[in-house]
UniProtKB/TrEMBL annotation:
<keyword id="KW-0472">Membrane</keyword>
<keyword id="KW-0732">Signal</keyword>
<keyword id="KW-0626">Porin</keyword>
<keyword id="KW-0998">Cell outer membrane</keyword>
<dbReference type="GO" id="GO:0015288">
    <property type="term" value="F:porin activity"/>
</dbReference>
<feature type="signal peptide">
    <location>
        <begin position="1"/>
        <end position="26"/>
    </location>
</feature>
<keyword id="KW-0813">Transport</keyword>
<dbReference type="GO" id="GO:0009279">
    <property type="term" value="C:cell outer membrane"/>
</dbReference>
<feature type="domain" description="Porin">
    <location>
        <begin position="13"/>
        <end position="354"/>
    </location>
</feature>
<dbReference type="InterPro" id="IPR050298">
    <property type="entry name" value="Gram-neg_bact_OMP"/>
</dbReference>
<dbReference type="InterPro" id="IPR033900">
    <property type="entry name" value="Gram_neg_porin_domain"/>
</dbReference>
<keyword id="KW-0812">Transmembrane</keyword>
<protein>
    <submittedName>
        <fullName>Outer membrane protein (Porin)</fullName>
    </submittedName>
</protein>
<dbReference type="GO" id="GO:0046930">
    <property type="term" value="C:pore complex"/>
</dbReference>
<keyword id="KW-0406">Ion transport</keyword>
<keyword id="KW-1134">Transmembrane beta strand</keyword>
<dbReference type="Pfam" id="PF13609">
    <property type="entry name" value="Porin_4"/>
</dbReference>
Length: 393
């Protein structure tokens, strides 16, 4: 009798939950989604984490990664029809570490990507014939282009983000990265004869724990992005400016970092060609930094071959003029779709760092995945190889 009573109560509870869910979501489209990506990666030529290591020494690492192609995540997204062609849209997404957090260069957040709970993407907006207006925390337009016009889509071991200005520009001394922005409002236009325009403004791109920097100025960002598609070709440009950042020796938060970005692709059918170019300048700095990539994807049955070559260079200096330092990367990879939701993959990439420091902090580049961020060693090469599986749901 005890078990029968428990079963009866359980059925009643399920009925109540079902009735509540039906009334709450009757007019809505709500989807639970996610990615679980795990692969074994092997890296050489990375900077040792031991601060007592001899200058110029390198280390190697082999481990199971919580996201080689893409950061593992889980989220909710949905729409509500408000009538008259107007919709409310939302998305809330958090990263997680299916292989554990002891991953080289993955930081200390315990979320592997995003930095905090629901830290990857949190967005609410309205969508209609006028386009889309949204707000929250999400990828910048600059990084979105790096995903769309990189054969490796900012993942694998051959990602453009290993040396792009979206990740590496003024890394450490100013803004950390232009990957995601906080407190952002965005307008995205509908397609106008193939032209789509996006405008972003961030009231404060800084960390939540430091909303106002030491000079009392918030670090703000705005960007304007245009993408034009005609037939098999797409071309576009982006301008991004981050203001009130620390870029001079006095520590005054009055400078700005500005990046121009151009991108394009052409689909030949048997292969797709693509490329990106970025150039950045900073107040109180002489010189500039730049990066570029050319690449291709080649469909092969249920799989795809990816290949790219790119370069990062910098002469930015807030002290004395520097000779332009350079890092070069070549990469190749292959993915195979077991189904619409499950993919096997492998990739290899190598970076050559020249004998000069790559950025103002004396940090060189290294090959990484979508979820780790090792540093390289000046004058040394860095390589990365990975093989794994990705499942989306």
């Amino acid at each position: 009798m005890k078990h029968q009573g428990f079963a009866k109560k359980s059925l009643i509870a399920l009925a109540v939950v079902g009735a509540f869910s039906g009334s709450a979501f009757a007019a809505d489209s709500v989807q639970l989604y996610g990615i679980i990506d795990m692969g074994v990666g092997h890296f050489t030529g990375i900077a040792p984490s031991n601060t007592t290591a001899a200058p110029g020494s390198t280390a190697s690492y082999t481990g199971l990664m919580s996201g080689v192609v893409a950061g593992s995540r889980i989220g909710l997204k949905g729409t509500e029809d408000l009538g008259g062609g107007l919709k409310a849209i939302f998305k809330a997404e958090t990263g997680f570490c299916p292989a554990g957090t002891n991953q080289t260069g993955a930081g200390t957040s315990g979320y592997c990507t995003g930095g905090s709970f629901m830290g990857r993407t949190t967005m609410l907006g309205l969508q209609g014939s006028f386009g889309t207006v949204q707000m929250g925390r999400y990828f910048t337009s600059m990084f979105t282009n790096e995903i769309n016009y990189d054969p490796f889509q900012a993942g694998f071991t051959g990602a453009y983000s290993n040396f792009s200005l979206g990740i590496f520009g003024l890394n450490g001394d100013a803004i950390g990265s232009l990957l995601r922005s906080n407190q952002t409002i965005t307008y995205i236009s509908p397609s106008l004869a193939g032209l789509t325009v996006r405008a972003d403004y961030s009231f404060n791109t800084g960390a939540a724990t430091d909303p106002i920097n030491t000079a009392g100025n918030k670090t703000t960002m705005w960007s304007l992005d245009g993408n034009y598609a005609i037939g098999a070709a797409t071309v576009g440009a982006n301008y991004t400016k981050v203001s009130n950042i620390t870029v001079n020796a006095s520590g005054a938060n009055t400078g700005a970092y500005k990046v121009w970005q151009a991108f394009g692709s052409y689909d030949l059918g048997v292969a797709k060609l693509m490329g990106i170019y970025e150039r950045g300048t900073a107040d109180y700095y002489s010189g500039n930094d730049s990066s570029w990539l050319v690449g291709t994807t080649v469909p092969l049955g249920a799989g795809m071959i990816m290949a790219s070559y790119g370069q990062y260079s910098s002469s930015l200096s807030n002290t004395v003029a520097l000779s332009k330092s350079t890092a070069k990367q070549y990469a190749i990879g292959y993915s195979y779709n077991l189904s619409k939701r499950t993919m096997l993959y492998t990739s290899y990439a190598h970076i050559n760092n020249d004998s000069a420091a790559v950025d103002r902090l004396g940090t060189a580049l290294a090959v990484n995945t979508a979820t780790n961020s090792n540093a390289g060693v000046t004058g040394q090469g860095s390589s990365g190889f990975a093989v794994g599986i990705l499942h989306s749901f």
